[in-house]
Design brief:
The structure is a homodimer.
Chain A: H1 14-38, H2 41-48, H3 52-58, H4 62-83, H5 90-107, H6 109-120, H7 127-150, H8 159-175, H9 177-188, H10 192-209
Helix pairs in contact in A: 1-2, 1-4, 1-6, 4-5, 4-7, 5-8, 5-10, 6-8
The first copy, chain A, binds a DNA duplex through helix 1 and helix 3.
Chain lengths: 221, 221
DNA sequence: TGATAATTTAACCGGTTGGTAAACATTACA
DNA sequence: TGTAATGTTTACCAACCGGTTAAATTATCA
Protein backbone atom coordinates (compact mmCIF):
# COMPACT_ATOMS: atom_id res chain seq x y z
CA UNK A 1 0.00 0.00 0.00
CA UNK A 2 1.98 2.93 -1.30
CA UNK A 3 -0.51 5.75 -0.98
CA UNK A 4 -1.33 7.74 2.15
CA UNK A 5 -4.92 7.59 3.24
CA UNK A 6 -5.64 11.12 2.08
CA UNK A 7 -4.80 10.16 -1.49
CA UNK A 8 -7.31 7.34 -1.44
CA UNK A 9 -10.38 9.48 -0.98
CA UNK A 10 -12.98 9.65 -3.73
CA UNK A 11 -11.88 13.11 -4.77
CA UNK A 12 -9.27 15.65 -3.78
CA UNK A 13 -10.66 18.02 -1.18
CA UNK A 14 -9.98 21.61 -0.25
CA UNK A 15 -8.66 20.49 3.11
CA UNK A 16 -6.14 18.22 1.43
CA UNK A 17 -4.77 21.09 -0.64
CA UNK A 18 -4.45 23.32 2.38
CA UNK A 19 -2.95 20.79 4.75
CA UNK A 20 -0.45 19.40 2.29
CA UNK A 21 0.66 22.94 1.56
CA UNK A 22 0.97 23.61 5.28
CA UNK A 23 2.98 20.45 5.84
CA UNK A 24 5.40 21.10 3.00
CA UNK A 25 5.98 24.62 4.24
CA UNK A 26 6.78 23.27 7.69
CA UNK A 27 8.90 20.49 6.24
CA UNK A 28 10.94 23.02 4.27
CA UNK A 29 11.63 24.93 7.45
CA UNK A 30 12.69 21.85 9.39
CA UNK A 31 14.57 19.92 6.71
CA UNK A 32 16.47 23.07 5.68
CA UNK A 33 17.76 23.66 9.18
CA UNK A 34 18.36 20.08 10.31
CA UNK A 35 18.89 17.96 7.23
CA UNK A 36 16.91 14.81 6.58
CA UNK A 37 18.26 12.58 9.32
CA UNK A 38 18.39 15.43 11.78
CA UNK A 39 14.72 16.24 11.32
CA UNK A 40 11.89 14.45 13.08
CA UNK A 41 8.28 14.12 12.08
CA UNK A 42 7.35 15.58 15.44
CA UNK A 43 9.31 18.74 14.69
CA UNK A 44 7.54 19.17 11.37
CA UNK A 45 4.22 18.46 13.04
CA UNK A 46 4.83 21.11 15.66
CA UNK A 47 5.81 23.76 13.10
CA UNK A 48 2.76 22.84 11.03
CA UNK A 49 0.55 22.94 14.13
CA UNK A 50 -0.70 19.42 13.55
CA UNK A 51 -0.36 16.05 15.25
CA UNK A 52 2.12 13.50 13.99
CA UNK A 53 -0.45 10.90 12.91
CA UNK A 54 -2.26 13.67 11.08
CA UNK A 55 0.87 14.41 9.05
CA UNK A 56 1.15 10.74 8.25
CA UNK A 57 -2.39 10.82 7.00
CA UNK A 58 -1.21 13.11 4.20
CA UNK A 59 2.30 11.74 3.66
CA UNK A 60 2.90 8.08 4.30
CA UNK A 61 6.50 8.49 5.47
CA UNK A 62 9.05 11.14 6.35
CA UNK A 63 10.81 10.25 3.14
CA UNK A 64 7.63 10.94 1.16
CA UNK A 65 7.45 14.45 2.62
CA UNK A 66 11.04 15.05 1.64
CA UNK A 67 10.55 13.71 -1.86
CA UNK A 68 7.46 15.84 -2.44
CA UNK A 69 9.32 18.87 -1.18
CA UNK A 70 12.35 18.32 -3.40
CA UNK A 71 10.19 17.83 -6.47
CA UNK A 72 8.27 21.01 -5.80
CA UNK A 73 11.37 23.08 -5.16
CA UNK A 74 13.85 21.73 -7.69
CA UNK A 75 12.06 23.08 -10.71
CA UNK A 76 11.84 26.66 -9.51
CA UNK A 77 15.37 26.41 -8.26
CA UNK A 78 16.69 25.83 -11.76
CA UNK A 79 14.65 28.64 -13.30
CA UNK A 80 17.42 31.26 -13.23
CA UNK A 81 19.73 29.01 -15.20
CA UNK A 82 16.96 28.24 -17.70
CA UNK A 83 16.54 31.95 -18.38
CA UNK A 84 20.17 32.10 -19.43
CA UNK A 85 19.78 33.18 -23.04
CA UNK A 86 22.14 32.14 -25.82
CA UNK A 87 21.02 35.06 -28.00
CA UNK A 88 21.60 37.74 -25.40
CA UNK A 89 24.70 39.74 -24.68
CA UNK A 90 27.15 37.50 -22.77
CA UNK A 91 28.12 40.03 -20.15
CA UNK A 92 24.50 41.01 -19.59
CA UNK A 93 23.39 37.40 -19.36
CA UNK A 94 26.04 36.46 -16.83
CA UNK A 95 25.38 39.57 -14.82
CA UNK A 96 21.63 38.87 -14.77
CA UNK A 97 22.21 35.28 -13.80
CA UNK A 98 24.34 36.34 -10.85
CA UNK A 99 21.74 38.87 -9.79
CA UNK A 100 18.89 36.37 -10.00
CA UNK A 101 20.81 33.72 -8.08
CA UNK A 102 21.69 36.25 -5.42
CA UNK A 103 18.07 37.30 -5.13
CA UNK A 104 17.10 33.69 -4.65
CA UNK A 105 19.72 33.27 -1.94
CA UNK A 106 18.23 36.31 -0.23
CA UNK A 107 14.55 35.49 -0.72
CA UNK A 108 14.60 31.69 -0.56
CA UNK A 109 17.45 30.73 1.73
CA UNK A 110 15.60 27.68 3.05
CA UNK A 111 15.35 26.19 -0.42
CA UNK A 112 19.07 26.71 -0.88
CA UNK A 113 19.87 25.07 2.44
CA UNK A 114 17.56 22.17 1.71
CA UNK A 115 19.66 21.32 -1.34
CA UNK A 116 22.93 22.13 0.37
CA UNK A 117 22.15 19.75 3.22
CA UNK A 118 21.22 17.07 0.78
CA UNK A 119 24.23 17.43 -1.51
CA UNK A 120 26.62 17.83 1.38
CA UNK A 121 25.54 14.51 2.81
CA UNK A 122 26.05 12.69 -0.45
CA UNK A 123 22.73 13.47 -2.15
CA UNK A 124 21.27 10.01 -1.43
CA UNK A 125 17.75 11.22 -2.19
CA UNK A 126 18.39 13.52 -5.16
CA UNK A 127 21.06 11.68 -7.10
CA UNK A 128 18.70 11.14 -10.01
CA UNK A 129 17.86 14.82 -10.22
CA UNK A 130 21.54 15.76 -10.21
CA UNK A 131 22.58 13.35 -12.93
CA UNK A 132 19.39 13.87 -14.95
CA UNK A 133 17.67 17.25 -15.30
CA UNK A 134 20.43 19.24 -13.61
CA UNK A 135 23.27 17.82 -15.69
CA UNK A 136 21.30 18.17 -18.92
CA UNK A 137 20.53 21.80 -18.25
CA UNK A 138 24.11 22.60 -17.31
CA UNK A 139 25.44 20.78 -20.35
CA UNK A 140 23.16 22.85 -22.54
CA UNK A 141 24.21 26.14 -21.01
CA UNK A 142 27.86 25.14 -20.97
CA UNK A 143 27.69 24.85 -24.75
CA UNK A 144 26.36 28.38 -24.97
CA UNK A 145 29.16 29.72 -22.81
CA UNK A 146 31.77 27.81 -24.75
CA UNK A 147 30.44 29.31 -27.96
CA UNK A 148 30.72 32.78 -26.49
CA UNK A 149 34.30 32.09 -25.51
CA UNK A 150 35.13 30.70 -28.94
CA UNK A 151 33.60 33.77 -30.57
CA UNK A 152 35.85 35.96 -28.43
CA UNK A 153 32.94 37.54 -26.58
CA UNK A 154 34.26 36.49 -23.19
CA UNK A 155 37.56 35.10 -21.99
CA UNK A 156 38.36 31.51 -22.85
CA UNK A 157 37.41 29.51 -19.77
CA UNK A 158 35.92 26.23 -18.66
CA UNK A 159 32.15 26.85 -18.72
CA UNK A 160 31.41 24.21 -16.07
CA UNK A 161 33.72 25.76 -13.54
CA UNK A 162 32.27 29.15 -14.34
CA UNK A 163 28.83 27.88 -13.49
CA UNK A 164 30.14 26.24 -10.32
CA UNK A 165 31.73 29.52 -9.32
CA UNK A 166 28.49 31.42 -9.76
CA UNK A 167 26.56 28.81 -7.79
CA UNK A 168 29.13 28.76 -5.03
CA UNK A 169 29.48 32.50 -4.59
CA UNK A 170 25.77 33.26 -4.65
CA UNK A 171 24.42 30.34 -2.63
CA UNK A 172 27.14 31.00 -0.08
CA UNK A 173 25.04 33.90 1.22
CA UNK A 174 22.15 31.54 1.97
CA UNK A 175 24.00 28.40 3.03
CA UNK A 176 26.68 30.06 5.15
CA UNK A 177 24.55 32.94 6.32
CA UNK A 178 25.49 32.49 9.97
CA UNK A 179 29.17 32.68 9.13
CA UNK A 180 28.71 35.69 6.86
CA UNK A 181 26.86 37.51 9.64
CA UNK A 182 29.45 36.52 12.24
CA UNK A 183 32.33 37.79 10.13
CA UNK A 184 30.64 41.01 9.03
CA UNK A 185 29.56 41.75 12.59
CA UNK A 186 26.15 42.89 13.69
CA UNK A 187 26.59 46.40 12.34
CA UNK A 188 27.75 45.55 8.80
CA UNK A 189 25.55 42.47 8.41
CA UNK A 190 22.28 44.27 7.67
CA UNK A 191 20.31 43.68 4.52
CA UNK A 192 22.86 45.80 2.69
CA UNK A 193 25.17 42.84 2.55
CA UNK A 194 23.35 41.49 -0.48
CA UNK A 195 23.90 44.72 -2.37
CA UNK A 196 27.56 44.74 -1.40
CA UNK A 197 27.82 41.14 -2.52
CA UNK A 198 26.11 41.91 -5.83
CA UNK A 199 28.48 44.79 -6.47
CA UNK A 200 31.52 42.69 -5.70
CA UNK A 201 30.42 39.67 -7.70
CA UNK A 202 29.62 41.78 -10.73
CA UNK A 203 33.07 43.30 -10.59
CA UNK A 204 34.65 39.89 -10.16
CA UNK A 205 32.84 38.08 -12.94
CA UNK A 206 32.54 40.88 -15.45
CA UNK A 207 36.20 41.86 -15.17
CA UNK A 208 37.29 38.32 -14.68
CA UNK A 209 35.68 37.09 -17.87
CA UNK A 210 36.49 40.09 -20.05
CA UNK A 211 38.46 39.14 -23.12
CA UNK A 212 42.20 39.49 -22.82
CA UNK A 213 44.12 40.18 -19.64
CA UNK A 214 43.07 43.45 -18.00
CA UNK A 215 46.28 45.45 -18.13
CA UNK A 216 48.48 43.20 -20.17
CA UNK A 217 46.31 42.63 -23.17
CA UNK A 218 46.97 38.90 -23.05
CA UNK A 219 45.63 36.06 -20.91
CA UNK A 220 47.20 36.12 -17.47
CA UNK A 221 48.74 32.77 -16.56
CA UNK B 1 31.30 15.09 36.90
CA UNK B 2 32.46 16.68 33.71
CA UNK B 3 35.46 14.52 32.86
CA UNK B 4 35.41 11.13 31.17
CA UNK B 5 37.00 8.32 33.12
CA UNK B 6 40.07 8.28 30.92
CA UNK B 7 40.89 11.85 31.88
CA UNK B 8 40.78 10.99 35.57
CA UNK B 9 43.69 8.59 35.54
CA UNK B 10 46.84 9.49 37.40
CA UNK B 11 48.69 10.27 34.20
CA UNK B 12 48.02 10.30 30.50
CA UNK B 13 48.87 6.95 28.94
CA UNK B 14 50.02 5.83 25.54
CA UNK B 15 46.74 3.99 25.03
CA UNK B 16 44.79 7.15 25.71
CA UNK B 17 46.72 9.02 23.03
CA UNK B 18 46.18 6.29 20.49
CA UNK B 19 42.52 5.65 21.18
CA UNK B 20 41.52 9.29 21.30
CA UNK B 21 43.26 9.81 18.00
CA UNK B 22 41.45 6.81 16.56
CA UNK B 23 38.10 8.04 17.82
CA UNK B 24 38.53 11.56 16.47
CA UNK B 25 39.53 10.19 13.09
CA UNK B 26 36.38 8.07 13.02
CA UNK B 27 34.29 10.94 14.33
CA UNK B 28 35.56 13.16 11.52
CA UNK B 29 34.50 10.60 8.97
CA UNK B 30 31.03 10.19 10.44
CA UNK B 31 30.23 13.77 11.43
CA UNK B 32 31.43 15.06 8.06
CA UNK B 33 29.07 12.82 6.14
CA UNK B 34 26.04 12.90 8.43
CA UNK B 35 26.17 16.10 10.43
CA UNK B 36 25.94 16.14 14.20
CA UNK B 37 22.36 15.05 14.70
CA UNK B 38 22.54 12.59 11.85
CA UNK B 39 25.53 10.80 13.36
CA UNK B 40 25.30 8.15 16.04
CA UNK B 41 27.86 7.06 18.57
CA UNK B 42 27.43 3.52 17.27
CA UNK B 43 28.47 4.61 13.78
CA UNK B 44 31.59 6.28 15.12
CA UNK B 45 32.31 3.23 17.27
CA UNK B 46 32.05 0.93 14.28
CA UNK B 47 34.35 3.05 12.13
CA UNK B 48 36.81 3.25 15.02
CA UNK B 49 36.55 -0.48 15.58
CA UNK B 50 35.60 -0.03 19.21
CA UNK B 51 32.55 -0.60 21.35
CA UNK B 52 30.23 2.27 22.20
CA UNK B 53 30.88 2.21 25.95
CA UNK B 54 34.57 2.19 25.18
CA UNK B 55 34.20 5.41 23.20
CA UNK B 56 32.33 6.91 26.11
CA UNK B 57 35.23 5.99 28.33
CA UNK B 58 37.33 8.51 26.40
CA UNK B 59 34.67 11.11 25.57
CA UNK B 60 31.84 11.59 27.99
CA UNK B 61 29.24 12.51 25.37
CA UNK B 62 28.74 12.69 21.61
CA UNK B 63 28.92 16.44 21.98
CA UNK B 64 32.34 16.18 23.65
CA UNK B 65 33.66 14.23 20.66
CA UNK B 66 32.35 16.88 18.33
CA UNK B 67 33.80 19.71 20.38
CA UNK B 68 37.22 18.08 20.57
CA UNK B 69 37.13 17.49 16.82
CA UNK B 70 36.20 21.07 15.96
CA UNK B 71 38.91 22.47 18.21
CA UNK B 72 41.54 20.26 16.65
CA UNK B 73 40.50 21.00 13.08
CA UNK B 74 39.65 24.69 13.23
CA UNK B 75 43.19 25.85 13.76
CA UNK B 76 44.69 24.05 10.80
CA UNK B 77 41.70 25.06 8.74
CA UNK B 78 42.54 28.72 9.14
CA UNK B 79 46.22 28.27 8.33
CA UNK B 80 45.99 29.25 4.66
CA UNK B 81 44.41 32.57 5.55
CA UNK B 82 47.06 33.18 8.21
CA UNK B 83 49.78 32.77 5.60
CA UNK B 84 48.24 35.60 3.64
CA UNK B 85 51.11 38.08 3.69
CA UNK B 86 50.64 41.85 3.76
CA UNK B 87 54.18 42.39 2.49
CA UNK B 88 53.90 40.10 -0.50
CA UNK B 89 52.72 40.88 -4.01
CA UNK B 90 48.91 41.15 -3.94
CA UNK B 91 48.28 39.08 -7.03
CA UNK B 92 50.71 36.42 -5.92
CA UNK B 93 49.22 36.32 -2.44
CA UNK B 94 45.66 35.96 -3.66
CA UNK B 95 46.69 33.35 -6.18
CA UNK B 96 48.56 31.35 -3.53
CA UNK B 97 45.64 31.60 -1.17
CA UNK B 98 43.29 30.20 -3.78
CA UNK B 99 45.70 27.40 -4.57
CA UNK B 100 46.13 26.46 -0.92
CA UNK B 101 42.40 26.52 -0.25
CA UNK B 102 41.81 24.38 -3.30
CA UNK B 103 44.44 21.92 -2.16
CA UNK B 104 42.74 21.69 1.19
CA UNK B 105 39.40 21.06 -0.47
CA UNK B 106 41.06 18.25 -2.40
CA UNK B 107 43.13 16.76 0.41
CA UNK B 108 40.88 17.41 3.40
CA UNK B 109 37.31 17.33 2.13
CA UNK B 110 36.02 15.84 5.38
CA UNK B 111 37.25 18.79 7.38
CA UNK B 112 35.51 21.11 4.95
CA UNK B 113 32.27 19.19 5.17
CA UNK B 114 32.43 19.08 8.94
CA UNK B 115 32.36 22.87 9.05
CA UNK B 116 29.88 23.14 6.21
CA UNK B 117 27.44 20.87 8.00
CA UNK B 118 27.85 22.85 11.16
CA UNK B 119 27.50 26.31 9.64
CA UNK B 120 24.66 25.23 7.40
CA UNK B 121 22.65 24.12 10.40
CA UNK B 122 23.12 27.38 12.21
CA UNK B 123 26.53 26.75 13.80
CA UNK B 124 25.04 26.01 17.24
CA UNK B 125 28.27 24.43 18.42
CA UNK B 126 30.86 26.72 16.81
CA UNK B 127 29.29 30.15 17.15
CA UNK B 128 32.05 31.29 19.48
CA UNK B 129 34.76 30.26 17.05
CA UNK B 130 33.06 32.13 14.22
CA UNK B 131 32.58 35.36 16.10
CA UNK B 132 35.94 35.11 17.87
CA UNK B 133 39.10 33.80 16.19
CA UNK B 134 37.60 33.59 12.71
CA UNK B 135 36.22 37.11 12.67
CA UNK B 136 39.44 38.54 14.12
CA UNK B 137 41.58 36.87 11.50
CA UNK B 138 39.31 37.94 8.66
CA UNK B 139 39.18 41.51 9.97
CA UNK B 140 42.96 41.60 10.02
CA UNK B 141 43.32 40.30 6.48
CA UNK B 142 40.52 42.51 5.22
CA UNK B 143 42.56 45.51 6.29
CA UNK B 144 45.48 44.25 4.24
CA UNK B 145 43.33 43.81 1.18
CA UNK B 146 41.74 47.20 1.63
CA UNK B 147 45.20 48.77 1.80
CA UNK B 148 46.16 47.06 -1.45
CA UNK B 149 43.04 48.39 -3.10
CA UNK B 150 43.68 51.90 -1.77
CA UNK B 151 47.24 51.75 -3.06
CA UNK B 152 45.93 50.87 -6.51
CA UNK B 153 47.53 47.44 -6.50
CA UNK B 154 44.25 45.66 -7.06
CA UNK B 155 40.77 46.81 -8.03
CA UNK B 156 38.74 48.64 -5.42
CA UNK B 157 36.49 46.03 -3.89
CA UNK B 158 34.93 44.94 -0.63
CA UNK B 159 37.60 42.75 1.01
CA UNK B 160 35.10 40.72 3.03
CA UNK B 161 33.13 39.67 -0.02
CA UNK B 162 36.39 38.86 -1.78
CA UNK B 163 37.28 36.47 1.02
CA UNK B 164 33.79 34.98 0.98
CA UNK B 165 34.11 34.43 -2.76
CA UNK B 166 37.40 32.60 -2.37
CA UNK B 167 35.99 30.44 0.42
CA UNK B 168 32.86 29.67 -1.52
CA UNK B 169 34.49 28.78 -4.81
CA UNK B 170 37.22 26.60 -3.33
CA UNK B 171 35.26 24.79 -0.63
CA UNK B 172 32.57 24.13 -3.19
CA UNK B 173 34.73 21.35 -4.59
CA UNK B 174 34.75 19.58 -1.23
CA UNK B 175 31.28 20.36 0.06
CA UNK B 176 29.37 19.84 -3.19
CA UNK B 177 31.62 17.14 -4.55
CA UNK B 178 28.73 14.83 -5.43
CA UNK B 179 27.09 17.55 -7.47
CA UNK B 180 30.33 18.51 -9.19
CA UNK B 181 30.91 14.89 -10.15
CA UNK B 182 27.32 14.45 -11.31
CA UNK B 183 27.47 17.52 -13.55
CA UNK B 184 30.92 16.83 -14.97
CA UNK B 185 30.00 13.22 -15.65
CA UNK B 186 32.09 10.18 -14.89
CA UNK B 187 34.56 10.83 -17.70
CA UNK B 188 35.34 14.49 -16.96
CA UNK B 189 35.18 14.19 -13.16
CA UNK B 190 38.60 12.60 -12.63
CA UNK B 191 41.26 14.15 -10.44
CA UNK B 192 41.91 16.63 -13.23
CA UNK B 193 38.89 18.60 -12.11
CA UNK B 194 40.95 20.29 -9.42
CA UNK B 195 43.50 21.49 -11.95
CA UNK B 196 40.73 22.76 -14.20
CA UNK B 197 39.19 24.50 -11.24
CA UNK B 198 42.52 26.05 -10.26
CA UNK B 199 43.04 27.33 -13.78
CA UNK B 200 39.58 28.83 -13.95
CA UNK B 201 39.68 30.41 -10.51
CA UNK B 202 43.07 31.99 -11.16
CA UNK B 203 41.73 33.52 -14.35
CA UNK B 204 38.60 34.72 -12.58
CA UNK B 205 40.26 36.29 -9.56
CA UNK B 206 43.43 37.59 -11.15
CA UNK B 207 41.60 39.22 -14.05
CA UNK B 208 38.65 40.14 -11.90
CA UNK B 209 40.73 42.03 -9.39
CA UNK B 210 43.15 43.65 -11.81
CA UNK B 211 43.13 47.44 -11.55
CA UNK B 212 40.85 49.17 -14.00
CA UNK B 213 38.37 47.50 -16.26
CA UNK B 214 40.03 45.02 -18.63
CA UNK B 215 39.15 46.56 -21.96
CA UNK B 216 37.69 49.90 -20.95
CA UNK B 217 40.49 51.25 -18.81
CA UNK B 218 38.03 52.29 -16.09
CA UNK B 219 36.16 50.39 -13.41
CA UNK B 220 33.27 48.46 -14.91
CA UNK B 221 29.98 49.27 -13.20
C1' DT C 1 -31.23 16.24 9.03
C1' DG C 2 -29.09 12.14 8.64
C1' DA C 3 -25.89 9.14 6.64
C1' DT C 4 -21.63 8.73 4.55
C1' DA C 5 -17.01 10.23 3.56
C1' DA C 6 -13.13 12.62 5.28
C1' DT C 7 -10.26 14.10 9.01
C1' DT C 8 -8.17 14.02 13.56
C1' DT C 9 -6.56 12.13 17.81
C1' DA C 10 -5.21 8.95 21.66
C1' DA C 11 -2.92 5.04 22.56
C1' DC C 12 0.38 2.18 21.30
C1' DC C 13 4.57 -0.58 19.17
C1' DG C 14 9.13 -2.12 17.98
C1' DG C 15 13.51 -0.43 17.01
C1' DT C 16 17.09 3.00 17.81
C1' DT C 17 19.80 6.19 20.49
C1' DG C 18 22.59 8.44 24.08
C1' DG C 19 24.29 7.10 28.09
C1' DT C 20 25.21 4.18 32.66
C1' DA C 21 26.63 0.40 35.98
C1' DA C 22 29.29 -3.00 37.07
C1' DA C 23 31.76 -7.02 36.10
C1' DC C 24 35.73 -8.48 33.63
C1' DA C 25 40.34 -8.21 31.29
C1' DT C 26 44.63 -6.18 30.61
C1' DT C 27 48.63 -3.39 31.46
C1' DA C 28 52.25 -1.26 34.08
C1' DC C 29 55.14 -1.27 37.62
C1' DA C 30 57.01 -2.18 42.41
C1' DT D 1 55.13 -12.20 40.02
C1' DG D 2 51.53 -9.84 42.36
C1' DT D 3 48.66 -6.06 42.56
C1' DA D 4 46.84 -1.76 41.78
C1' DA D 5 45.63 1.17 37.98
C1' DT D 6 43.84 1.21 33.58
C1' DG D 7 41.02 -0.39 29.84
C1' DT D 8 37.03 -3.12 27.76
C1' DT D 9 32.76 -5.44 27.54
C1' DT D 10 28.13 -7.13 28.68
C1' DA D 11 23.84 -5.98 30.07
C1' DC D 12 20.88 -2.57 30.65
C1' DC D 13 17.77 1.82 30.82
C1' DA D 14 14.86 5.68 29.66
C1' DA D 15 13.83 8.72 26.06
C1' DC D 16 13.06 9.26 21.34
C1' DC D 17 11.56 8.09 16.75
C1' DG D 18 9.02 6.41 12.66
C1' DG D 19 4.95 4.48 11.97
C1' DT D 20 0.20 1.82 12.93
C1' DT D 21 -4.46 1.00 14.73
C1' DA D 22 -8.76 2.02 15.84
C1' DA D 23 -11.87 4.89 17.64
C1' DA D 24 -13.74 9.60 17.77
C1' DT D 25 -14.75 13.85 15.45
C1' DT D 26 -15.93 16.82 11.72
C1' DA D 27 -17.30 18.07 7.02
C1' DT D 28 -20.22 17.12 2.95
C1' DC D 29 -24.20 16.72 0.60
C1' DA D 30 -28.45 14.09 -0.87
Amino acid sequence: MALPRAARTQRRTRIQEEKEELILEAALEVFATNGFRGSTIDQIAEVAGMSKPNLLYYFRTKEAMHRALIERVLDSWLDPLREFDAEGNPVTEIRSYIRRKLEMARDFPRESRLFANEVLQGAPRIEDALMGPLKSLVDEKAKVIRAWAKAGKIAKCDPYHLIFAIWATTQHYADFDVQVRAVLGTDRAGEGRFEDAARFLELLFVNGLAVGGPATGGPAV
